[in-house]
Amino acid sequence: MKITASKFSNFKNLLTNKKRNFLIITQIFNSIIALVCGKLIAEYISPEQFGLYNLQFAAFTFFFSLLIGPSINFLKASYHNLLPEVGYKPFLNLLGLSAVILYIALIVFLNLYKAGEFKDWYLYLILLFLIPFNITSSILSDQFNVLDKIKSFSVFNIIKAISGLIFLLAAFFLLPKFTNDYISLWCMQLVIGATGIFFFLPKIKKYRENVPTDVIKFFLKKYIPFVGPLMFLAGWSWINSFFDRYVLEHSLGIETVGIYSANYSLGSKFFLMLSPIFMVLLTPLIYSNSEISRKKSYIFKYSISYLIIGGLILLVIFFSTDIIGRILLSENYSKGFYMIFWIALSYMIITFTYLFEMIFFANHNTKIILYSNIISAVLNGTLNLILIPLIGMNGAILSLLISVLSRFAFIYFKYKKL
User: Fold this and answer.
1) Threshold 0.90, pTM exceeds
2) pLDDT tens, residue by residue, 373-417
3) Quick check: 181 and 46 in contact, CB under 8 A?
4) Looking at the 3D structure of the chain, how many domains does it have?
5) Is 52 among the domain residues?
């Protein structure tokens, strides 16, 4: 009777946890929108244009994660201690300087890579606004997450997703001149960022403005050790995520990059859509002032649930790969449908690893994250260079799978020693 009563109590708690249920519902809604957007892009954007967008986006991601990402992570880890002491000003000054360097670096790269083959003046104008929009959007998202404002976090993401979908529908059906141009995808990113900021910037929590000089010195002493490893980490993380596109483009051409990227994106979505539910619920628990043993107990609980749900999702994908590809992509990308399951498997491992990595971020022990990414990136990059010229897209898939397994093994080994 006690066991039955306990199970009934747990089930009742599950149903009455409004915050968690709201997050799950909104994430499912976001997932549906993401899949619809992917379908529209696959129908109206050719593999060549999608490949070009992905190569440009890979460059944007590299410089953003190198110059902006570490500072945003430092801000995220400072909400309960440093930020109330120093306010936003030191963070924003550094982010502003980094944004200028980012913009210049992107323009230089796009003008130099393949003798300027990927440069576009419209893109330069979009990037001028997209960079500050992305920075502000990331700060808002992290603040809602860390401060446990789940409703704001969820609605924020819903509004951004809806704005992207509305733009694609308008671009493909009302403005047909954009239907085969990769610039429409960059415009979508711009609209998503602008919409989120317009509705939610007033909700940002404000902190003190006047900061003594000695506090600034203290801030820099904290900032440099935290950000340094993460900047170094950015390069290795980029190799893990995007280096394969450039090897594919060099070996097999830009159309192959488009086919690979579309199927890669679809395969990764299943767990990139599931993972935020666990990460958002776990973040306030791990970034709190609790003891490490308590934090580890939370991670263990969430990781078991993640494995069970992930296993069921993979089972469905395995037996319906072609159907999923035809429904959610288009025949233009059918050469890569077989990839969907293997990319999904890889991303289940990647996102599962995120659960264990979180404790190292919260404890400012970012060197562990750096070492895991170096190991993974060296394997991934080396295997891509060897295998892609030999077996094409299969080489990229095999390289990814081996590298993510090595990363998880290292993180879990370090986690067990905490």
Assistant:
1) no
2) 899 999 999 999 999 999 999 999 999 999 999 999 999 999 988
3) no
4) 1
5) yes
